[in-house]
Amino acid sequence: KVLGWIQIRPGPNRVGPWGLLQTVADALKLLFKEDIIPMNADKPMFVLAPALVFVPTLMAFVVIPFGVGFVNSRLHYIVLQDLNIGLLYLMALSALGIIGIIVGGWASNNKYSLLGAMRSVAQLISYEVPMVLALISVALFAGSLSLVEIVQAQGSTPAIWPLLPAFIIFLIAGVAETNRCPFDIPEAESELVAGYHTEYSGMKFALFFLAEYINIFIVSALITVCFLGGWKGPMFLGESWLWLTSMFWFFAKLSLFIFAFIWFRGTFPRLRVDQMMAFAWKFLLPLSVLQLMVVGWGIVYRNPWFSANRIPSL
After folding, report:
1. Which candidate, 289, 267, 290, 287, places its Cα nearest to that of 279?
2. CA angle 276, 136, 293 (to 5 degrees)
3. CB-based contact 45:39 (threshold 8 Å)
4. 3-state DSSP assignment of residue 77
5. The pLDDT value given to residue 190
6. Which member of 42, 70, 160, 169 lies 3.0 to 4.6 Å from 107 by CB, making a disulfide possible if both were Cys?
7. What is the pLDDT of residue 15?
8. Are 288 and 133 a contacting pair, CB within 8 Å?
9. Residues with Cβ < 8 Å from 34, sequence gap 6 or more?
10. pLDDT-derived band of residue 111, with 50, 70 and 90 as boundaries?
11. CB neighbourhood size of 179 (10 A)
12. pLDDT of residue 270
């Protein structure tokens, strides 16, 4: 009763201390809700699906560099593990989430959940193709798949200017990958109740919900690292506080895009599924291939606009 009172007391706007209490109450409420499994559902797959969606989103934090600092007069990056295939690692993790969605929709033994899962997978696969092509442009520009080296390849000018078409493509595809409006067809509450997680309740539903918001953080972090120079900015606190100022600039850029993603959800209307798919395959895909060709041409012929990747001369 107390949790329910906290939830309805402040009204729909989560602002100030009441809004914080409401958010905490929602999280606690989901922990104590009854966990319902449909009678004819595939129980092992039904239980496994939320983990298949949630775990890859957490694993993505391994390669994201949050800043840089000096420890014992040596420069260290604030990252769990700087993999030399960081971008490839993130692309592989995004594919695992798609498997969890289709497993959850199928295991529920509900035709509406299965339809929502099919629409979700169709959207994610369609928009993942131009997203990957945009990331390949970033890798060509920087000459590396490591996220740390991608940041270091961006000198005084961030990559958003020479790679502006790739940035726009990645931003649109990122909105679609995180199910923000106008690309929220996978859930489409007014049409499909809740899409692929209609039959889920309690903590299992919370894992799907939390994974969606973690994906917003991951996509915003990728935009920050690949196009906005990551942690780079005026280091106004000196060398000893380099770790603090670098993380300040990273999270300032990150917060800007998280705000934009949440703003999109409350602003744009939903597209029809045929419009959404046509936009991905007929417009974004050709545009992403064209901008990839332009970036490749600029690097091979040593155009100064794409000088971050310095290929040794033959």
Report:
1. 287
2. 85
3. no
4. strand
5. 59
6. 42
7. 43
8. yes
9. 201, 202
10. confident
11. 20
12. 75
Q: Which residue has the tokens 């040593």?
A: 302
pLDDT tops 70 at residue 139: yes
Higher pLDDT, 189 or 73: 73
**Cα 120 to Cα 98, 174, 186, 210, 276, distances in angstroms:** 8, 14, 4, 17, 12
Q: How far is CA 36 from the centre of its chain?
A: 29
Q: What is the DSSP letter of 282?
A: I
Average predicted confidence (pLDDT) for the chain: 81
Calculate Rg over the CA atoms of the chain: 21
Can you tell me the mean pLDDT for 128-153?
Answer: 90
What single letter denotes the amino acid at residue 119? R
d(CA 289, CA 270): 27
Per-residue model confidence (pLDDT) at position 136: 92
Question: Residue 110 — very low, low, confident or very high, per pLDDT cuts 50/70/90?
Answer: confident
H/E stretch holding 71: strand 67-71
**pLDDT at residue 189, rounded to an integer:** 58
Q: Beta partners for 164?
A: none
CA-angle at 99, arms to 96 and 104, nearest 5°? 130
Mean pLDDT to the nearest integer, 214-230: 90
Query: Residue 81: what residue type?
Result: Q
Over residues 170-179, mean pLDDT: 87
The interaxial angle of helices 111-142 and 86-107, nearest 10 deg, is: 180
Sign of CA dihedral 17, 23, 27, 28: positive
For residues 87-101, give the mean pLDDT.
88
The three-class DSSP label of residue 277 is helix
Contact predicate 50/200, CB 8 Å = yes
SS3 of 104-140: the string is HHHHCCCHHHHHHHHHHHHHHHHHHHHHHHHHHHHHH
Beta-bridged to residue 68, according to DSSP, are 77
Number of Cβ atoms within 10 Å of the Cβ of 195: 25
